[in-house]
Design goal:
Two copies of one chain form a homodimer. Chain A is mainly α. Chain A has one domain: Tetracycline Repressor, domain 2 (Orthogonal Bundle), CATH 1.10.357.10. Helix content of chain A is 74%, strand content 0%. Chain A is built from ten helices and no strands. In chain A, helix 7 packs across helix 8. The termini of chain A are far apart. The structure holds a DNA duplex.
DNA sequence: GTCTATAGAAGGATAGAC
DNA sequence: GTCTATCCTTCTATAGAC
């Protein structure tokens, strides 16, 4: 036995949730893909589909964060790190025929007004992503408040671009989002040209 | 008779798709909310759920575009127009307890890898939104290519912020996205400080 | 054209043999 | 712990009365 049944179930759930969402994924489909008997779901996850969903969201969220952090930290500077992450996301999307984008975004939108435990799981993952990104911007010398805004703006762009890219079957939105995020970080690091960053909005308000 | 059965069905479908997505919305739920007999669905939409979905996506997309255009065009300038749109989206989200965000984003993610007719419908709506926004930026004096990038960046931010805002039950992401989009448009209009706009990326590459 | 009833498949969940 | 069989509900879709 190489991989435990419980882990195979979590793996196949993660993949199916990413592509087809929560309501679009059936438990029978999950065990079929995991090569597991149906009863194993309720053996390992007594809470049924919802518990399996919550655990998968946390697991997928953590794995995706680690993946992004590796790409990010391998870059020589934060601007390149941001660019590389978006480029990697675009490459993955193309390779998988526009199927594999954000591992939890579809679920997040589906469950937001339906299941409080599931919504909370997606919220915890997103908050962790924001803090991970913000801490890296902070380490690069950006003040905490602006670092958080930059992190949110970058992740906004990433998630929005995923929506558009999957629908349009084009990586154009991802490339635009990557360029914008990189430019925003660059501007935040360069005190000479802060006009287009959220933080310096007040200063630039005198402009047309 | 005030509103035709067919329109009531489309209205209730639009509302349910927006909140619960495509697979999360049942036909029985639709006719219940529309006060219509079940058979009416197949009378008016012989193609079943998929046809009803396609028509609703186009309809919701058009209505949302018109709503945004009204807010946008009522503002004294494009920067204010952008800000007002995000502020309005945030207000709607709060008033509806974080239920009413983008009318088609949840569906778009759900169907992207499942139904080609539905995916295409979402793609057509998104492309129309991009062109509507880009044309307004163009009218303000921004060159076509940059206007399209700005439009995509702004819509990326809006859709991504919808994902985060619904999950986190906070309007913070929407406010960040609005400020960033307004700043990007302002920078594109101001030749003095173009450093942080996507278009001027090459020029600024010499910076740290 | 409006509406009801029901078919047939798929959904989540459970019981219990092994 | 593994696996099968089955229950009950819900889903989409259709048939046909009125």
């Amino acid at each position: 036995m190489t991989v435990a049944t419980r882990d195979r179930i979590l793996d196949s759930t993660a993949e199916l949730l990413r592509r087809y969402g929560y309501t679009g994924t059936g438990l029978k489909q999950i065990v079929a893909e995991a090569n597991a008997p149906f009863g194993s779901i309720y053996h390992f996850f007594p809470g049924g589909k919802e518990q399996l969903g919550v655990e998968t969201i946390h697991r997928s969220g953590r794995m995706y964060q680690e993946l992004v952090e590796e790409v990010f930290d391998a870059a020589p500077d934060v601007v390149t790190g941001v660019s590389d992450c978006f480029a990697g996301a675009a490459a993955t999307l193309e390779v998988t025929d526009y199927a594999d984008a954000c591992p939890i975004a579809t679920v997040a939108l589906e469950v937001a007004s339906v299941s409080e435990p599931l919504r909370q799981a997606t919220a915890e993952v997103f908050e962790s992503w924001i803090q991970s990104s913000a801490s890296r911007f902070g380490r690069a010398g950006i003040a905490p408040a602006q670092a958080r805004e930059l992190a949110i703006a970058m992740l906004n762009g990433l998630e929005g671009a995923f929506v558009f890219s999957r629908a349009l079957r084009s990586t154009e939105p991802l490339h635009v989002a990557g360029a914008q995020a990189a430019a925003a970080v660059r501007a935040a690091l360069d005190p000479q040209a802060p006009a287009a960053t959220p933080r310096s909005r007040r200063r630039a308000r005198s402009a047309p």
